[in-house]
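Hi there,

I know you've been waiting on this one. I reran it after we fixed the sequence typo, so this is the corrected version. Both the input and the resulting structure follow.
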Amino acid sequence: MKKRVLTVILCAALLLGAVIVPAYAADRPVYVVLGDSIAFGSGLLNPREAVYGRIVADTDGYEYYNYAVPGHTTGNLLRRMGEKTVREAIVKADIINISIGGNNFLLDNLNGLMYDGIVKKDYSRIDAIAEGVYEDIGTVVDTIRELNPDAAIILQTLYNPQTGYVGEVYLQGRDRINAAIRAFDEARPGEIIVADVGSVLTDSGSDFAEDRIHPSASGNEKIARVILETLYENGLGTETEPVIAVKGIDAHGAGVFTVFVNFYGLIFHIFSIVRDLFSGNR
């Protein structure tokens, strides 16, 4: 009789456990990552396991979805948000983490922008790009709010991975786009939470992959820490020290782009010296 009672109790406990465990899993906050190659993890050989979004999710126990696409601009992101799977993820998200804006600058006639900046010291085209980013951020936020009025939207600032003559042009682009992000935050307070990634990723070789554009494994860990601290400060997370479940592996042999832009940066610098000499500025 006692054995029969014990068996019934054990069965009841197992059934209760079967009900409780899925319910607990379903209650995990949903963390959705959107954006570009930085959010995708293009500086890593194992981005699925080691990109900063994965680290954040592993650390705070979030249910994780990443819909970032390398090369995406703010316009691409808006079109991506029209896709059924992405919209469904946005609807159920508690936190939406976005990295976007860098390709608006990188993919918009970079040679022309370098010529304007290095030779002419004219950054008006970068100003126009930043204004476009500001407008697109508003549309991105409005689109999210139509689908999900309550999700926290984390928007990352840009960093400058380049040095030398090209680095100054990158710096101008970074600063103007970051100013647009902060201006939007001030104009529409409470709509987004700014995660200041740009202040922690420097020109240190350890922060970037060999392409000198994308974060390395170490850089992804730094970004994860910034996101975790931002979430914690806003009552959205419980931890600030990243949990590294899988160590990132840096991608190698992809420095052609940097060699290319530095070569053109040097050419434009020489041209600017010659131009100044003939114009009597020196």
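Quick highlight: Residues 28-279 form a domain with the Rossmann fold fold (CATH 3.40.50.1110).

Best,
R. S.
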